[in-house]
């Protein structure tokens, strides 16, 4: 069994996502301590690894993530987590807990039009498409966080919204999700991204913007011809 850097990050990030929703009062309870979450997340390693590899094998491009969405819906049903599918086409909004505050955790689900050169048993089954940006890991992180949080749902002081967003790589899937109510009532949102330059087992963050984004705009140039 290969314990890759990516999978170690999946386990660590899974714990971080779940810990975001724990209040100070809850943190004193043994079942919700950081040590307890880390130990439980580590026990899910093979479960996480299986999901990451299955998702890696089925990369789909922006707004065409039908197999991926169906896979995620099946796992949410298995965890007994209610959700709304078909958001922005292939996106999913799931919820845990109830009331306020509402805190959202988000993962992207699309892949890139890249031919995979890796020689692994879980290589992309679709030529010319690959999860080259880690979105297979991001989905796995959110599934892991969902599982940990479901086990503690009765202790949550508020609502956790789980967002599986299509089309992060292009065409603006985030805005489509927002337009369909993904952030309604949400007071805070977090999304973790794998980062190969960060030492394994660590998470980095900062106040404000931490990663770049691309955008499109049109320019009209008016002037005299000739």
Notes on the protein architecture:
By secondary structure, the chain is an alpha/beta fold. Helices cover 34% and strands 14% of the residues. It contains 7 helices and 5 strands. Strands 1-2-4-3-5 form a 5-stranded mixed beta sheet, sandwiched between helices. Helix 1 packs across helix 3 and helix 1 (5-19) crosses helix 6 (135-150). It starts with a helix and ends in a 36-residue tail after the last strand. The model has no long low-confidence stretch (mean pLDDT 86).
Topology of helices and strands:
Elements: H1 5-19, H2 24-27, H3 34-43, H4 45-56, H5 66-78, E1 83-87, E2 91-97, E3 102-108, H6 135-150, E4 159-165, H7 173-179, E5 186-190
How much is the radius of gyration in Å? 19 Å
H/E topology pattern: HHHHHEEEHEHE
Q: What share of the residues does DSSP label as strand, in percent?
A: 5-15%
Taken from the alpha-carbon principal axes, the silhouette is: globular
Lateral arrangement of strands in the main beta sheet: 1-2-4-3-5
Low-pLDDT runs of 5+ residues are none
Q: Give the strand tally.
A: 5
Could you estimate the helical fraction of the residues in percent? 25-40%
How many helix segments? 7
Mean pLDDT comes to 86
- What can be said about the biggest beta sheet? 5 strands, mixed
Distance between the termini: 69 Å
- Indicate the structural class: alpha/beta
